[in-house]
Write a structure and sequence with these properties.
12 helices; alpha+beta; eight-stranded mixed β-sheet; 2 domains; OB fold (Dihydrolipoamide Acetyltransferase, E2P); five-stranded mixed barrel; BirA Bifunctional Protein, domain 2; binds adenosine-5'-triphosphate; 31% helix
Length: 439
């Protein structure tokens, strides 16, 4: 007997099949019992006629069955236009309870009115049972799959860099310290140095999808202390524009594919229409953005804040991108170099050869051409007072290293924006923040 998932049942009308899932609903009427059983791909009605003597054992079992138990059903899948759910039903010959749920759930995940987010996160394994959450992670998985696919199609190699590191690199701030036998180690804030090491080793094109750890004690809707970063680095570029172009192409490719596979479901469940972006993405200088935000929307900030986009300015950039370019994305360039990481390349006049990418009013990426010239990178590190801390990294550039650049996208943030979800706490499988380490 074939074990079939819900979304394949239609292909087996008239056949004897086996179906397993959670008990989603039970209707126990005078002459008939209906149970709705769901797996991760959908739901199906199981119909049991009470008057049929041979069903007696199943009828008794269902009289005693609790919602959210798991069952294994053997029976025939029948087409039935009268059944609203999928125009089909299973007529069972045998039902086995494979796991019995307690009667009362910690909260009703099907009706979240009055349920606070912390309760949902405390019982995340229940929260994740909702159709919406299951779809969210299927979409996230597809998004990452297609971003990966784009890179594989373009000869990138997927790497896996260590997350234990020996020195508090990059800035030292915002880094988690861990006990490592009789010494200290740190959790990687990003794979930046090791991606670049691979470039120096001659790998040409690399990427990694992995956790980053940041000891940021901030409680915003878009920050977590551990998040999944999609990190890309590649060689032989002429400019940071090559990096922006590759990123834009990759995002277009992935969004197009996600839309084809999940577009209808996403619009039905999340009310979001995925806009496949047109290439090239619009690009604006930071200073020009502030000028336009003031002219168009009377948004005025102090000069001292104009070294980066404020949260409100990021939000307004979405409006600007829509109104000026009819686009959801905007590359922002010309950030003051002194505010940026030392490994980003600077022009001969000192301006930064890097960018941020804003989508729907939130930063999703920082990218840049990297400094690959040994003397320059040493100088940059010295200027930031980091030369000793990053000594091992500086070595990478001593023995030949091609011009290169790259970027990083936070996957949890990307999912939040794709599906218009208000907080990263809901798009991480298990949120990690300053006050949340469980479950
Ligand atoms: P932000 O200014 O939003 O704190 P950042 O400038 O520190 O971000 P980068 O170090 O450039 O971010 O990281 C690249 C990308 O990684 C960001 O654009 C974002 O998508 C993601 N990211 C960074 N920090 C976090 C975080 N704490 N939680 C979730 N995602 C993050």
């Amino acid at each position: 007997m074939k074990k079939i998932y819900a979304n394949d049942l239609k292909k087996h009308f008239g056949e004897e099949i086996e179906f397993s899932g959670f008990v989603d609903n039970i209707r126990n009427l005078q002459w008939v019992q209906f149970i709705i059983v769901r797996d991760s791909t959908g739901k199906v009605q199981v119909t049991i006629e009470k008057s049929d003597e041979k069903n007696k054992k199943m009828v008794d079992l269902i009289n005693d069955l609790t919602l959210e138990s798991t069952v294994k059903i053997k029976g025939i899948i029948m087409e039935n236009p009268k059944v609203k759910m999928g125009n089909m039903e299973i007529i069972p010959t045998e039902i086995e309870v494979t796991s019995r749920s307690e009667n009362e759930l910690p909260f009703n995940y099907k009706n979240l009115d009055g349920v606070n987010l912390d309760t949902r996160l405390d019982f995340r394994f229940i929260d994740l049972r909702s159709d919406k959450n299951i779809l969210m992670f299927q979409v996230q998985s597809a998004l990452v799959k297609y971003m990966r696919e784009y890179l594989y199609n373009n000869s990138f190699v997927e790497i896996h860099t260590p997350k234990f590191i020996g020195t508090a690199s990059e800035s030292g701030a915002e880094v988690f310290e861990v006990k490592y036998f009789d010494r200290k180690a740190y959790l990687a804030q990003s794979p930046q140095f090791y991606k670049q090491m691979c470039i120096a080793s001659g790998f040409s094109k690399v990427f990694e999808v992995a956790p980053c750890f940041r000891a940021e004690n901030s409680n915003t809707s878009r920050h977590a202390t551990e998040f999944t970063s999609f990190d890309v680095e590649f060689s032989y570029i002429d400019s940071y524009e090559d990096v922006m172009n590759l990123e834009a192409e990759m995002l277009k490719y992935a969004l197009e594919k996600v839309k084809a596979e999940y577009g209808d479901k996403i619009s039905e469940v999340f009310g979001v229409n995925i806009e496949v972006p047109v290439l090239p993405f619009p690009v604006m200088k930071l200073s020009d953005i502030y000028k336009e935000l003031e002219e168009r929307y009377s948004y005025v900030v102090d000069e001292s804040e104009k070294t980066d986009l404020t949260t409100e300015a990021e939000r307004l950039v979405y409006r600007l991108a829509k109104e000026k370019f009819n686009h959801e994305f905007m590359f922002v360039i010309d950030y003051p170099a002194d505010k940026r990481a030392f490994y980003h390349m600077r022009d001969s006049d000192g301006s930064l050869l890097g960018y941020d990418l804003i989508w729907k009013g939130v930063e999703i990426t920082s990218g840049a051409q990297r400094e690959h010239r040994y003397e320059k990178i040493v100088e940059n590190a010295k200027n930031k007072g980091l030369a000793e801390d990053v000594k091992f990294y500086l070595e990478f550039f001593k023995y030949g290293c091609p011009p290169h650049g790259g970027f990083a996208i936070g996957i949890d943030r990307l999912t939040m924006l794709l599906l218009d979800i208000s907080s990263i706490k809901e798009t991480q499988l298990l949120f990690r923040g300053p006050t949340r380490l469980e479950p």
